Amino acid sequence: MADAPKTLDRDEQRLAELGYKQVLPRVWSGFSNFAISFTIISILAGCFTTYQQAWLYGGPVNISWGWPIIVGLILFVALSMSELASAYPTAGGPYWWAHELGGATWSWFTGWFNIIGLIAVVASVDYAAAVFGSTLFNLWGVDLGVFNWADGGSLRDIFAFFVVLLIVHALVNIYSSHLVALLNNISVFWHVFGFLAIVLILIFVPDRHQSASFVFTETINGSGFDGGATSGLVFLMLVVPVGWLLTMYTITGYDASAHVAEETRDAEMAAARGIWRSVLYSGILGYVVLLAITFAAVDIEAINAGLPPIGAGYAPAIFTSAMSDGWAETVILFALVGQIFCGMACLTSCSRTFFAFSRDRGVPGWQLWSRVNKRRVPVYAVLCCATLALLITLPALRVNSAGYLWAFFAVTTMATMGLYAAYVIPVYLRWRAGDNFKPGAWTLGSKYKWINPIAVVWVAICFIAFSLPFYTLGVPWNDGFEWTWLNYGPIGLFGVIIVVGLWWIVSARKRYTGPVRTIEFDAAMRIIDEKEPTAPGS
């Protein structure tokens, strides 16, 4: 029992109404809240590391036309989530929303989709940064003896870089929530400065550029389906949709604004604005940088051949084929630093979700993962998320005979599908609730009636698209089939969800009842009881 009633400020009061004691430090401004989502989206990460996905599956038209159309559809998802974040400003985000609107079962599966997606995002972003870093070290001729990038770099060298990044990001997240907020603020300015520098370099440095006709009308089919044809039903229904992964993967992670709501001042407005603004601004800047890259893609043969190290991707090949090594190194360096900022923010968002879901007993060992240290940081949640990201990326130590980084594209697909499933489940439930839903300070009003269903249908279409095979060699009944060409993303995601579902049926539904209240207050919103989470029935 508290010694005396304690009066709460508005943020603490709203959190108390939702059942939680203020544990995490509320040191984030509205700009910091926006910054973490903008940093995780990171146009210097996804636009560069998955560029080849749109290039091979649809070609330049899937970039010049696909990006703005898809960003517009994603905005419907973001706006729907903003309304929910304002109504329920908790670190749990989507799984908490799902419980409030649909009950424990919806909450359980939403929470696990969210956690799987976020762990995969941490893995994919840091591994892609390691690939870009290895590319830069290769251009610089770095040879450390044990690790040698001068000869192109090996998978072991790339993985070592990846491990170092995970360790650094974990240490930064453990040290201080205030430091993470500060670095996210810096990251916004780096992304804007890097964006301007890269665009100007790509416009003025190359001797020649592609024509507008190439950028806005050229089609490519690198999948092998339909003999490589770039028209017809197979191209439109089987090839082009796979290329949407560039946009959908890049514009993910904006749920971070909800996950740090308990650390944000004026969370009801700041978290809502952080979600939709990060999507809008990233969409605009990302489109400009993608057009700049595509206009610079003049040496098609060199681009399709790629460059060392293994799996470096098509964007670095565009830079090295369009300009001198010095300018290419500059562009790659700007992108790499942005990716490092992105990885740090991804781990923050992932650990806060893991902490929140553990606080509500949705994760085995919840007593450990829901602890905070003297700086009020969920240290064990940070370490667990970083470790799981490392483990799921171990298959990246192998590639197939063509040098295809199948493990990287598996985690990118898993991340995209997992996160968007977590995003639209509560959106669907809010749509179903209709006018019974009680909005917060930021609301869609009656517009939810058409915005919510568009969001849900679009994500359902993407789920089908990203479950398609990427290559003819990834279809088991085709000649030349190889297991490493299989699209493992949906297999991995739904494999885990099936296990989680069986666990729910057998035992978890008896223990997980949704959010667990850790605070009681009186009519004047003064704390009258605070308690630590205890096991059910104790």
Sum this structure up briefly.
65% of the residues lie in helices and 3% in strands.
Explain what this protein looks like in three dimensions.
There is one protein chain. With 538 residues, the protein is mainly α. It contains 22 helices and five strands. Strands 1-5-4 form a three-stranded antiparallel sheet, covered by helices on one side. Helix 2 (30-49) crosses helix 17 and helix 17 (325-359) crosses helix 19 (379-392). Residues 1-7, 307-311 and 533-538 have low confidence and may be disordered.
Helix content: 55-70%
Order of helices and strands: EHHHEHHHHHHHEHHHHHHHHHHHHEE
Q: Characterize the overall form.
A: globular
Going by helix content, strand content and strand pairing, the class is: mainly alpha
The helix tally amounts to 22
Strand content: under 5%
- Neighbour order of strands in the largest sheet: 1-5-4
Overall average residue pLDDT: 87
Question: Could you describe the largest sheet, including whether it forms a barrel?
Answer: 3 strands, antiparallel
Distance between the first and last residues' Cα: 17 Å
